[in-house]
Amino acid sequence: MQRRSSRRMFLGKAGVTLALPFLPSAFWSRRSGAAICTPPRRFMAWFAPNGMVMPAWTPATSGGAGNAWTMPPILSPLASVRNKLVILTGLDHQDIAVPPPGSPTSPTEPATGTGCFLNMLPVEGHETDVSRTSLDQALLPVLNSPACGTPKFPSLQLSLEYLNGVCGTSNCSFTRTISWTGGAPLPTISDPGILWDKLFYQAAGTADLAQRQALRKSVLDYVLDQTRSLTTRLSAADRLRLDEHTTLVRNLETRLERIGKSTSPPPVSLSCSPPPRPPESSVLQFGGTPSSYIQATFPILVDLMALAFECDLTRSLTFMIGKGDAENDYAFLTGSPTPHHTTALAETTGANQAKLTQIDSYEIQQAANLLSRLDAAVELDGRSVLDRTTFYLSSNVADGQALNHWDMPVLLAGGSASGLKIDGRHINYIPQMPFPRPLVGPRSAVQTGRVFMSILQAHGIQQDTFGLASGGPLPELML
What we know:
By secondary structure, this protein is α/β, with parallel strands linked by helices. The protein contains 16 helices and 13 strands. Helix content is 32%, strand content 11%.
């Protein structure tokens, strides 16, 4: 295996390549003991549809790092990484999502909130605006600088929900996509099997579906001999890391097989040629994404996203749990059919709020699993992958019944190497918020888009506006 000035490593044989995690001991000069390159920075946006139960999301007090505020129920799964979080309360982009005074033909949710989620341009009056570029794409020139090798994929767009079926009165892209470049939507990958193939192997010249499936049956079998050879040149810590990585990839293969056709989205051909568009699924279109599929697939996607960062296959990820009015069924949590959007629209009852809190907590648990995994992955200089990642989580709305775009649930995660001051604080821009707080709190004058300007400037991109948002970065987020 030839060593190059890139931190991405692969093993390969017979047209199959296996991406490896970052192994520090493989990148030290034996003569000087110096690192060949500096680990890269990354960005990820996580879209959680249908809002949050804000009384169970919002910390009751503001405070600095450490344990200055109590973790509310929905955020409690993040306790292990709380010092690498910032919770932002009171951010507002109502007038961007729904420009006043509006009109009878204005787009409605979910298009309004999802359409501007990462770009801060309204759908109304901007449906064909070529300036619509999302934050993940705006960061690419910095994230993918070739100084230390470029990733295999400039960016990846993923989703849990198979994004087909009905999508409201607007262009479906505004409900199914959060990543945009030059006014064009970037569609998501939702099939974990196809994502696994895309990330971890390429089979040169194998257009035959059966042959590709046979190769995927166990990609590790094709590179096992090279894996054994590599381990002799690694430190003890890296040998353990490599063993854990190959075990996880093998386990992912097994888990993908167990999902089964009965709960998977309509099959998509693995041929190298574009297949015909699959037919709409009546189950997924009108009944929501099945509970069993969510339960089986969500953890797999989390593992794949973590590996994509750890192996430096990409430095920019966007992930949608579902479109803005996702009807993902969380029956495996509640014990009975619980389509998310329908339940959110009726949340004022105590029973619905309890179910939604279960759903929100489960979704945050998956984000916590990802963040903990990235925090455990150590880079060349002893910092974790999370330390160099900027992670942004929010929703299309704050409250799933009121459908408001103020008092938004916003969470940042990362470390000091992200360029932002992410240190465990809760920052509340609504000092008059009463506690126990209402489902929908008062409005503030602080625009959500200022978080995006903070992220851009932390990456060296000097912008004081983004989309229609203005005001410059938030000083309290800047180092």
